[in-house]
Amino acid sequence: MNAGYRREEAPIIYFGAKTILAVLFPLLVFIAAIVHVPEQMHILLVLTAALGYYTPNVFLIWRVRERKREIFNAFPEALDLMVVCVESGLALDAAIAKVGDEIGQSNAALGEEFKLANLELRAGIGRESALRNLALRTGVDDIDALVAMLIQADKFGTSVAESLRVHADGMRTKRMLRAEEAAQKLPVKLIFPVILLIFPSLFMVLLGPSILTLMRLLGPMMAGQ
Question: What's the gap between Cα 93 and its chain centre?
């Protein structure tokens, strides 16, 4: 659900892939071992079976992480658009439908989630249930916080527009802090590439001509000796 696979056969495909790969990988190793049988053949078969079994898990975790990142990057713009819609006089349900149509042009994942929430509202599901389903499908903490705020504003009768504006301001501050945090981490992440890749090339460029000159000067002297 968090990865965006809505079809009913998605769990069957997932577990089928785990089963097929857990059998296929050891089978390929066994066929390759006909020419040369390794000493620890049974350990190799177990390891390849485990690799095939957990490969779909790794792919699914990566897909969920990428989709959450995509939704999070587009969420502040969607929240600002929702604020504009509500302050212009639209009801919350109409604002959700409008945001789904507009944000879907730039971010398909988030637009799909808002459209599904709108379809649930039109089908007669309560607003609280539809919003909670939206947070559950995305798995993004910021959307979960927005849903909790909207539900409380609906229960206590507070202004939805004002609550959305305050939440949007908090989201912009949070995004700025995350960008500053990523910028602060950048020098540490650059240490290893600089040491392993840039410094050797730099030393070769700076010291290479000097080493060649010394070899050219000292070579005849050493040959004469």
Answer: 28
Cα separation, 214 vs 219, whole angstroms: 8
Using a 10 angstrom Cβ sphere, with 0-12 exposed, 13-18 middle and 19 or more buried, the burial of residue 125 is middle
Residue 4 forms part of a structural domain: no
pLDDT in tens, 142-200: 888 888 888 888 788 777 888 888 888 887 888 788 888 888 888 888 888 888 888 88
Question: For residues 89 and 97, what is the distance between their CA atoms, to the nearest angstrom?
Answer: 14
Tell me which residue range forms the domain holding 17. 10-173
For the chain, the domain total comes to 1
C-beta of residue 156 within 8 angstroms of C-beta of residue 138: no
Task: State the Cα–Cα distance between residues 60 and 37, nearest whole angstrom.
Answer: 34
Global pTM? 0.73
Q: Which amino acid is at 214?
A: L
